[in-house]
Each structure stands twice: as structure tokens, then as C-alpha cells.
Amino acid sequence: MAIDSADIAVRTLRLQVDEVIRETADAVTLVLSTADGEALRYRPGQFLTVEIPLSDGSSAARCYSLSSSPDTGERPAISVKRTAGGLGSTWLCDTVTAGSALTTLAPAGTFVPARWDRPLVLVAAGSGITPVLSILKTALASHDGPVVLFYANRDPGSVMFAATLDDLQQRHPDRLTVRHWHESASGLPTATGLTDVVSGIAGADAYLCGPTPFMEVAQQGLLAAGVSPENIHREVFSSITTDPFDAVLVETSPGTGVPVSAEVEGDDHSFHCAPDTVLLDAMLAEGIDAPFVCREGNCGACAFTLVSGDVHMRVNDTLDQYEFDRGVRLACQSVPVSNALTIRID
Ligand SMILES: Cc1cc2nc3c(=O)[nH]c(=O)nc-3n(C[C@H](O)[C@H](O)[C@H](O)COP(=O)(O)OP(=O)(O)OC[C@H]3O[C@@H](n4cnc5c(N)ncnc54)[C@H](O)[C@@H]3O)c2cc1C
Ligand code: FES
């Protein structure tokens, strides 16, 4: 079988930092604009992947959720909390100033509410508030249901967006309940502490973001409060180890394998995907502008919907059962296991 390899260069955005807002001693918000003045198109809960320059001239990549909402007219912004000894967060917190330019990938990710007609339970710890705040602001600005936010931090001084949250609560007293949990006063967050806040909200969709042990406890609390497991969505913050800004080498066997029909952002494509080739590589080798970031199965940027046929996912560290049941799969980890495939990328 002939193997073709091709270097694929990823499409990048050049964003200007208009303002740096110090949120806490350890966290900043970078307010952004596009170089051409065009609006940045994103959905609440999505993230940007930022190129981090290294001293040897190479680069790394780190993902940061947009803390702004696309539905309130505010400028796009990411919010970064310093990780001790961390490569990307240290550079962004210490080096970037108003006027700096950032190279990023297009907004991506699946931590985005698919429906807004249910009560929302939002659960965050530390910097996990960033995608949750974006969802919260969109819910209040563009939808009608009640929203509960449970936000855990070490102490009052480490609460990001404290003033914004107070302001939102004052402006929406009938719809928004904010419950802060401070470890300094109450110890580590408990499942019961969350259950008490959430109980009484029937049929809610829940969005969780924070360290993994926190999300495990939060999940127990939500289940005890009667939230259905398929309605609990998680965003995992981790550092990606690949560099999507580097040209990506893909190896495929063109013209062989399973026929695939793909609708990618409204354009129709037909190609073949060999049984040992992941769909993302087959699309990139065809010249299709398919989205991706980590290529490791943990960011969700390459998510697609399986319309017909079946795939095997080698790794899935990001999709939850709700998404899986609706046919969502990761292109960077999916190999075909049926005779034909039809897929869609929105
Ligand atoms: C989808 C997504 C959205 C995200 N959104 C946000 C957000 O909105 N805000 C935010 O602040 N973060 C966010 N993150 C997390 C962010 O991408 C980074 O993981 C985070 O900033 C830490 O990166 P860093 O480069 O500063 O630290 P890293 O350099 O990755 O280091 C992390 C830790 O590991 C240690 N370490 C590093 N290398 C080694 C080594 N070789 N041996 C031992 N220890 C080591 C460091 O000392 C540090 O404590 C998000 C992540 C994802 C995937
Ligand atoms: S590119 Fe990150 S999960 Fe596929």
C-alpha cells in the first residue's frame, strides 16, 4: 500500500492584547481584538490555543478558555491563572502587556451548552471559572432559565471575577444564585455542600470545570441532588504536549480504505480513509481545513458528528456520555470500522 506523507500548516489568528486586567495576585484577564477588526466568532465555553514562544526559538501551545461571552457585546478575553513553575501561564502573566500580539488557533471546544431551555447548574474551582463565566453571562443575557453557580476557591483573595459575579447577582436576583466556597473557612469542598445548594432544581444541565478531584466530588454532589449523569458536562484543564503551531506530518494511503462523505462547515467532501488512519489525518491530507489542536484526544477541538457508519476511538479524554450518545466523536482518534462513513463538522 502506498503511503503518502504531507506537512500540514495550521491556520492561525493574530490577536492584539488591548488591555491586561489583574483579577487576583495570581491571575490576569487579557482583553483581545483581531488584527483586521473583524469580530472573533466563538461560542460560550470555547477556548483559544495560544502559541508560547520559548527561549530557544521554538514554541509550545497552551489552551485558555474565553471568559467573555459572545452574546453581550463585550470584547473577547481569556483569563489565565499562574501555575507555579508553569511555562505558558508564567509567560502570559509576566510578559504580555497591552499592545502585545498573540498567535492563536481559532476558538474550539465542545464545552458549550447544546440547549438553553433547562435550569443551569455551574460548578467551578479556581481558574475553572473562565468557561463557566462565559456560559453564565450568555445564559443571563440571551436566555430565561434559573442559574446556580457554585464557585470554590482557597480564600476570598483568590476569587477571580468577584466584582463581576456580585454585579450579575444584583442585576439578576430572581434568576442567579451564586454560592462561594472558601477552603480557608470551610475546608475542601464536599459533595453535601454542593447538594445543599443544588437540591430543588429539577431537570438541570450541569457544567463543571476545575481540578479532577474537585470535579469527582462535585459530580457526587450533583448526582445526590438528582441531576442526571447524562446532563453533567466537564471541562478538563491540562497542558497539551503537542505543538499544533508546528507543521503537522500526516501519513495516509490515498484512495484506499473506506469511502467517507464529510460536510465540513457547510462544504461537502468525499475521500477515503484507510482502517489504520485517523479521520483527521485523512481529511488534512485531502486539503480539508478540519479543526484540531492537541491530536491527543483531550481538547475536543476536532469533534465531529457521526451521521452514518461507525468508528473506533483510540483515546477519549474529553467527550462525555451525553455527547457520545449524540454521535459526537474525535477525528484525531477515530479510525473507521464500517464499510462507509458520513460525518459532519459544524
Ligand atoms: C481546554 C482547556 C482550557 C483551559 N483554560 C484555561 C483557562 O481559562 N485559564 C487557565 O489558567 N488555564 C486554562 N487551561 C490550562 C492551561 O492550558 C495550562 O495547562 C495551564 O496554564 C498550565 O500551563 P503552564 O504552561 O503554565 O504550566 P506547565 O508548564 O504545563 O506546568 C504545569 C505544572 O507541571 C510542572 N512541570 C512542568 N514540567 C515538568 C516536568 N518536566 N517535571 C515535573 N513537573 C513539571 C510545573 O512546575 C507546573 O507545576 C486550560 C486547558 C485546557 C485543555
Ligand atoms: S485535536 Fe484535541 S481532541 Fe482531537
From TrEMBL:
PROSITE patterns: 2FE2S_FER_1, 2FE2S_FER_2, FAD_FR
UniProt cross-references to CDD domains, sorted A to Z: fer2 (cd00207), PA_degradation_oxidoreductase_like (cd06214)
Keyword Cell inner membrane: no
Iron in keyword set: yes
UniProt keyword annotations, A-Z: 2Fe-2S, FAD, Flavoprotein, Iron, Iron-sulfur, Metal-binding, Oxidoreductase
Residues in 2Fe-2S ferredoxin-type domain copies: 258-346
Protein name: 3-ketosteroid 9alpha-monooxygenase subunit B
Organism of provenance: Rhodococcoides corynebacterioides
Lineage: Bacteria, Bacillati, Actinomycetota, Actinomycetes, Mycobacteriales
